[in-house]
Predict the structure.
Amino acid sequence: MHKLGEYLFRKFGVLFLGFFLIGGIPPSSAQPLQEVKVTIEGHTFQTTQMPLQLDTETIIYITNKDMVRHDFGSDMFWNTLTHVESKGVVTYGKGIEGVYLEPGQEASIRLMLNHSGCFQFQCSIHKEMKGEILLLTVDAV
Ligand SMILES: [Cu+2]
């Protein structure tokens, strides 16, 4: 009985390790994903971004660190299929104008940026709050 248990453990332990290794290798077909991080603090948008490429899936993470509600709105979403995730709920569609963020809330917006340039965003509640995401490509020069 004891030996059987040990045998099973070894056998399945190895199997589990095998699954873990296979599962741990990222699929080679994975699309590149580029990230933009936007933090709202003190009624200001702080943007951290890498150089962005055209026609690559882009995900914008927004965090509201203020004690008041803010809005992240932009016309960059108007003609693009957009996935918005907030509080575990995913909303998608074209023509999204923005996302409201309650105090301490996070949201992510996933989309394809299909033309280069400067993408402006703003808070519709506090009109003075503005920021931008820069997408420059070699072709655009
Ligand atoms: Cu605001």
